[in-house]
Sequence to fold (327 residues):
Amino acid sequence: MTDEQPRLGLADSAALALTFFSLGVTLQVLLIDRGASLWNALTATTVIWSATSQFAYLAVRDAGGGDWAAIIAGAVAASRFGILATALVPRLPAGTIRRALASVNAFDPNVAIAVQQRDERSVEREFWRVTAAMFGGWFPGIIVGTLIGNVVGDIDRLGLDAVFPAALLSIIAGLLRTGEGFAAGVAGALICLALIPIAPAGVPIILSMFGVGVGVLCTRRQRGSRP
Amino acid sequence: MTTRAIIALVVAVWGQRLLGGFVVGPVLARRSALAQAVGLIPAAVVMAVIIQLSVADGRTLVVDERLAGMAVAGVLVWRRAPFLAVVLAAALTTAGLRAI
Fold:
């Protein structure tokens, strides 16, 4: 096949559903471990629609940061979804409502597969097929996670506190594989490391966005060396 | 999570998606340098969240079992292992070292 239009097969759909199932379970278990009631944990995850933002929010609260610092960190971390939507929406068939519906459901896997289709009908169809597979795992996952949250016990003993950073790393792996994405990621990590001991909780994550400057410089240099 | 946080994050997350799709997307299509810079924000910020979750306890930097779990996860991600394998390996490494 010379010009491939990747489609999600049955096995891929099952793997994707399982991934989102486990992500949903772990997020709910963490929320409940951090003192959320069952109802609060379920409402928060269902309406916020971004596990990344919730992880960022909880990371700042765990570090002793205030509510607003945690909220801003969560909002900055959600920039990923805005950027995914910029790639998706122009490729969809015209129509404000169908475009808005797709844009608020933009996640990494569905956008990645949708934008590789050729015509706008296929973009929309494949977007919703991948979305259906994700939701097929996600909703059962958050329900199971909410229900078992109280019986899991000490989540640190099970190593579940390492699950969240590992999950995030796996989610942004595609971005880190480009030279400039890697440079921006390393710079963001270093900014955060340097600021954690000296800045109020939440501020290191918010200011890490300036790591983007290093990524941009890195691309400029590469272009300069290859005229 | 506080009610205030839930409401604020709903506005931030849903708002950024709509803003990205309907406002920023069309503008960025005309300015590729800006598009590139904006596209790198998640790499920087999510890496910072990973740091906060793996080598910090509050405002102190700590090296503990989580870092070993993250090192294993890092190698697996680099080798393109599936999500579930990455997450399970990180948890098992961290829990295993704590059990010793």
